[in-house]
Amino acid sequence: MTTYLLTGARPLGGDPTDVLLADGVVAALGAQARRAGGDAHVVEADGLVLLPGLVDLHTHLREPGREDAETVESGTRAAALGGFTAVHAMANTTPTQDTAGVVEQVWRLGRDAGWCDVHPVGAVTVGLAGERLAELSAMARSAAAVRVFSDDGRCVHDPVVMRRALEYVKAFDGVVAQHAQEPRLTEGAQMHEGVVSAELGLTGWPSVAEEAIVARDVLLAEHVGSRLHVLHLSTAGSVEIVRWAKARGIDVTAEVTPHHLMLTDERARGYDPRFKVNPPLRTAEDVEAVREGLADGTIDTVGTDHAPHAREDKDCEWAAAAFGMTGLETALSVVQAVMVDTGRMTWVDVARVMSSAPARIGRLTGQGRPIAPGEPANLTLVDPAARRVVVPEQQATASVNSPFAGQELPGSVVATFLRGRATVLDGALVEQGARV
Ligand SMILES: NC(=O)N[C@@H](CC(=O)O)C(=O)O
Ligand SMILES: [Zn+2]
Ligand SMILES: [Zn+2]
User: Fold this and answer.
1) pTM of the model
2) Fewer CB atoms inside 10 Å of the end CB: C or N, the chain?
3) Where does Zn(2+) 1 bind (predicted)?
4) 368 within domain boundaries
């Protein structure tokens, strides 16, 4: 296995130092790294920020079932290029990831592709139908060792089913990740309900449809003493509820997506379906509230909600288009633009919200660890001074539905290491055959 000497890298944005990666771990730092790294492959890292490998709790890889939109192979290539060393693959596949057999299949596909760790999310209910609990314990005990359960794409709407799921996952330290959307309040909804939806004549999706479920679920989590994770939180009211719940000692964590940190419902004005997403893009006040919530720790993680869609599902009129946008290859840049370059967060904070916190919530060992001797070498090296224009056709994801197409974003991933092996070097994928 190649050893790597990263020279002049800034761990978590701190002072420059040399970092030696050998035998899958961070072998040494500083002068010791330079001494021991005589025959190592040198990666010039002057001015580059070294982060723990990013961990996504919310990726749609679409395999099995929609390999025309993404496969485990194409999606994990995108992940590696985005700086990720682990992703959680959402359960809304066809067939649904609701049995030990299907989650093991996805887990194996991820392992064989080798671009990053793939942790399948288990469905909460059979077929995401919201009625009967899926075989949660069999998925937890399978080779995939599932700890995160979600019907994402759909809300676990029945409070009795949600309560049972929260109770059940306690047996194996699992977490229920809720897609908070009151279905009756969002029937036929096309975008955020507000001034813009009224002007465009599109059916609105009120903030309360999210907030009502977030409020109910934090109370349920408190009642049964279980862990709850709120996916893609998007409204100022949701931030307030989670803040209240945490102050009360409820074991809740929350996620925001890069697109909800940057974009508003004004984008719907062009009726461009790339901006159609669930939950919908909200108002500037909501965007400010989720930024503040992320900076003050109310929101624990940034999850990409990478949701690739085939061209025919997006190249159509707004009302007919699918909900969702890609995000793995732009997530870190968006967080840099919105949170770091504005002085609202440091790289230490970025490492928390994009690596250590999601790893902890997913109960991953070996990911999101400090950059210290003996720790697994899951790392990403970022050039914060770089700028690039997003060209979806040039990305590794098999789909082109990026809301940032044509936009210039700061920062680029120069290298990604998975247990000491480079998956990305010089900003390009290191193909299997070239890996040593
Ligand atoms: N976010 C989306 O708009 N779409 C997701 C489902 C989801 O995350 O709810 C998808 O699977 O396409
Ligand atoms: Zn969702
Ligand atoms: Zn999703």
Assistant:
1) 0.98
2) C
3) 58, 60, 152, 305
4) no
